[in-house]
Design goal:
The chain is α+β, with helices and mostly antiparallel strands. The chain has helices spanning about 10-20, 60-75, 125, 130-145, 155-160, 175-185, 190-205, 250-265, 275-285, 290-295, 300-325, 335-345, and strands at about 25-35, 35-45, 50-55, 80, 85, 95, 105-110, 115-120, 215-220, 230, 235, 245. It folds into 2 domains: about 10-110, 2-Layer Sandwich (Phosphorylase Kinase, domain 1), CATH 3.30.200.20; about 120-350, Aminoglycoside 3'-phosphotransferase, Chain: A, domain 2 (Alpha-Beta Complex).
Length: about 350
């Protein structure tokens, strides 16, 4: 097991970030240490921003740049509220910095601070129908923008060339070639993932037929309650670092899978998953008609997208555990615990 590194920003890193974005004197408060590291930045005049650090060995610069361009497309659509990236003094969204004492290079990006508050507060993101409906509308609008290729197909296609496929995220953890190789080597979790894919996930994906602009394109990829704020009836999306090209239903499956997780694990008392699902889908259907016309919002398809997303989540977890065990990456114990929980929960679909 890897020892916990020291993830305290050096004074030099603080100065570099402040200088690159002309922030002046400011403070940095660590928010989260995961695949990326995020910090709250507060300036002397109380302006707030988010700085995100990404290790260079985690994502290519071109991939991060495409993410930031995607967010800009969404912002310019006028239909979606996002935390837009902020250009540095050189007019670039990314800066290479050395944030920690180990002297390893990371990519830094600065984002607007989301308006509103966390929907995790008293789990209002699960119970407030207005918020749930707003999330459904927002996700539908996101898929509409992707379907139209941001009303600028030429520029969009250039951006999308550097967006990974679903099988290429997280060091190819959901690539069946990778999973089958590990399974052949005797890795038990990988054996389980292989069986579930061959028996259920693979056949479902095959049943979706040929991708079309109405059903397939660039998605957010990580629509959990932690990745959006509510400001009245407006939703502010952030954390697009898991964006990739996939079926739009994978985004919907993500929303529903996490809501069902809270329900089945008993984390939230009095939560009615079916009601939540209906409110979310009713709002989505009013804004996005292409998915309904393609039959991708029928019950059997929704169940399939939930299964796919649950399996996909588990591939990410397995990859993270392997990296942690080999000492290649460090993850906090809470993340390690949730990885084991999600993988074991996915095991109920195993055909063994």
């Amino acid at each position: 097991m890897s020892e916990q590194p020291n993830y305290s920003l050096t004074e030099e890193a603080n100065s570099t970030i402040s200088s690159q974005w002309n922030l002046g004197s400011c403070t940095f408060t660590q928010i989260k240490v995961s695949e990326n590291h995020t910090y709250l930045v507060k300036t002397q005049n109380d302006a707030k921003y988010i700085v995100r650090l990404t290790p260079e060995n985690h994502r290519a610069q071109e991939s991060i740049q495409s993410e930031l361009e995607f967010i800009t497309f969404l912002s310019k659509s006028g239909a979606i509220h996002v935390c837009s990236p902020i250009a540095n003094k050189n007019g670039c969204y990314l800066s290479e910095i050395v944030p920690y004492a180990d002297k390893k290079p990371w990519y830094a990006a600065l984002f607007e601070f989301a308006q509103g508050g966390s929907v995790m507060d008293k789990f209002i993101g699960l119970f407030d129908d207005n918020i749930v409906a707003s999330v459904g509308k927002t996700v539908a609008e996101l898929h509409n923008v992707a379907s139209r290729r941001g009303n600028n197909p030429e520029k969009w296609n250039l951006m999308q060339k550097n967006v990974p496929l679903g099988t290429q995220t997280h060091e190819n953890c959901s690539d069946m070639n990778v999973i089958r190789k590990r399974a052949k080597e005797g890795h038990e979790y990988s054996k389980m993932l292989e069986r579930i894919y061959d028996a259920k996930v693979g056949p479902f994906l095959d049943s979706l037929g040929k991708p079309t602009d109405a059903t397939y394109g660039v998605i957010h990829g990580d629509l959990t309650l932690e990745n959006y704020f509510a400001h009245g009836d407006q939703i502010y999306l952030f954390d697009f670092d898991q964006m990739h090209v996939n079926w739009y239903g994978a985004d919907i499956g993500c929303v529903l899978t996490w809501a069902r997780f809270f329900d089945e694990m008993g984390y939230v008392q009095g939560f009615d998953f079916e009601h939540y699902k209906n409110v979310f889908l009713d709002a989505y259907k009013k804004v996005n008609t292409g998915m309904s016309e393609a039959g991708h919002l029928e019950q059997n398809k929704l169940e399939g997208f939930e299964l796919y997303r649950e399996w996909y989540n588990s591939t990410i977890c397995v990859g993270a555990l392997i990296q942690h065990e080999k000492g290649e990456r460090h993850f906090e114990q809470t993340i390690i615990d949730i990885c084991h929980t999600l993988i074991k929960r996915c095991g109920r679909h195993d055909t063994k």
